[in-house]
Amino acid sequence: MTSPKDERSDSSNRNGGGRNGGTKDVGAVVNAIQLLRHLAHQQAPEGVAAIARATGVSPSSAFNILRTLNNEGFVRFDENSKTYQLGIGLSELTVNLIGQSYADLIQPELERLALNLDILIVLWRITHDNHVSVIARGIPNVAHVDVRLDSRLPELIGACGRAIAGVRDLPDAELRRRFARLRWENPPSFEEYQQGVKEARERGWALDDNCLYRGISMVASVLTDHHNQPRFAISGIGITAQHNAQGLTRAGDAIRDTAHFLERSLFPRNLRENTIDE
């Protein structure tokens, strides 16, 4: 980690770090996405009643939405069985994504967070040898610390480490053993570290305040895959003097929400619990 850069620019008139920015979701659009997500997880075509029951969308709304999606080619309706399945029209929406890496797909979210939160945003890949490696960054328009691409750290150190440990839910003895091997500029006690892991598990993001590096504050959240295994971590890394407790909490919440959004997009498992009916 090198010294802060000097570049500064006006950061006024920015939205908050959250993805929705306080706007209200459109019910019909949310329901259409719910129906498409449901069909994407099915091994065989389904009828309107089954789809509506599984998603919680009313049968009348489901029928109208599916009919519209069929007209646009996003689903295909079988006249004989009266069932629906995904249509070839969806390929039109994904053509520009084919061949892109996870880092490429996540990059716009990193940039959005960096600009909205005025903090360096880093995407870490969790490796098979118990390390994390930098694969992408979002650069803010304020003075900031710099983290080089391909930088590596032990996976359980810092804010990322607390978040990863919270997901792995390691036995106390194993957590203590691995903690003893970590090297910090301002080491926390094991009890303090363990409490940070517990808080990360409860709120979905972790904090490292002047422990890994003096004068540097970090927040982080983890992306897990279909099997609930940690695959990536997103961290916000800032100069402590620039970020108070309220700002770090705002950053942690925004990074967690983005991580959850990316999990659902890249590693879909279950439909959202809540639906919005017309």
From TrEMBL:
Residue ranges occupied by any IclR-ED domain in the UniProt entry: 82-268
Pfam family, one: HTH_IclR
Keywords: DNA-binding, Transcription, Transcription regulation
Stored SMART domains: HTH_ICLR
Annotated spans, Disordered: 1-24
HTH iclR-type domain boundaries: 26-88
SUPFAM superfamilies: GAF domain-like, Winged helix' DNA-binding domain
Biased composition (Basic and acidic residues): 1-11
Protein name: HTH-type transcriptional repressor AllR
Source species of the chain: Alcanivorax xiamenensis
